[in-house]
């Protein structure tokens, strides 16, 4: 059976002139996809022999892929016991959400301040393309739509694309991937409780009106609402799951002038 290409759901398509992926990179992407989508459950042991058979590869590429996933925070290693899928917890999700709100507040404000017509066009095209595909492959019940997931990533990347800081964008991308894992674990039970399309449209409207205060507030509310929906699903993250409290907004930091 032909496998889905893992990066279709979470990353932009590779350029036509990009060098071919190594075997270890290919295994890494497939393993990463299965962890992010929940095909490999949190805390499950990653036995090298089992993985080799599952992904049809040898020990060396598999260990390289696992070490990369260890650096990503998606795999943990225990002395004398080997590799395990990283656990999930309410506290970690709340921490990811809080940090993502902080970082993307800065990135979106900078994009609104410095983005030109090309940035506005990217945002409009991204939200339009996202609206043209269904959230689920089945009406009424949830079945992950890889094309929606891919376009969803591109939409959020477009919003921040004019911030002028590649490291900041990279951190935001990493947090998006880590929270994506939590969304997938709860998606089947939470669908269709969350009006993601309406929230996306409200953020875009404020951003293109150059209303940074409203746009960043709506974006943070969008992330917190998603987190609340995930935490409300009993049994997904454990009995101690509680919705995060809405933090007080930090005061604006006045820039020094020479």
Kindly give the count of domains.
2
Average pLDDT level: 83
CATH architecture of the largest domain: Up-down Bundle
CATH C-level class of the largest domain is Mainly Alpha
Q: Strand-residue fraction?
A: under 5%
Low-pLDDT sequence parts: 1-20, 239-244, 250-258
**How are helices and strands ordered from N to C?**
HEHHEEHHHHHH
User: How many E strands?
Assistant: 3
Which percent bin holds the helix content? 55-70%
Largest sheet: 3 strands, antiparallel
CATH topology of the largest domain, which one? Four Helix Bundle (Hemerythrin (Met), subunit A)
* Radius of gyration of CA atoms, rounded to a whole number: 19 Å
Structural class: mainly alpha
Q: How far apart lie the N and C ends?
A: 64 Å
Corresponding CATH superfamily of the largest domain: GntR ligand-binding domain-like
> Tell me, what's the shape?
globular
The number of helical runs is 9
Task: Provide the spatial order of strands within the biggest beta sheet.
Answer: 1-3-2
Quick structural overview:
The chain is mainly alpha-helical. Helices cover 58% and strands 4% of the residues.
Write the layout of secondary structure elements.
Blueprint lengths: L22 H14 L8 E2 L1 H8 L3 H14 L2 E4 L3 E4 L4 H25 L2 H15 L14 H15 L5 H25 L5 H13 L3 H20 L27
Antiparallel strand pairs: 1-3, 2-3
Helix pairs in contact: 1-3, 4-7, 4-9, 5-6, 5-8, 7-9, 8-9
Which features would summarize this protein structure in a list?
258 residues, mainly alpha, Arc Repressor Mutant, subunit A, Four Helix Bundle (Hemerythrin (Met), subunit A), 2 domains, 3-stranded antiparallel sheet, 9 helices, 3 strands, disordered N terminus, disordered C terminus
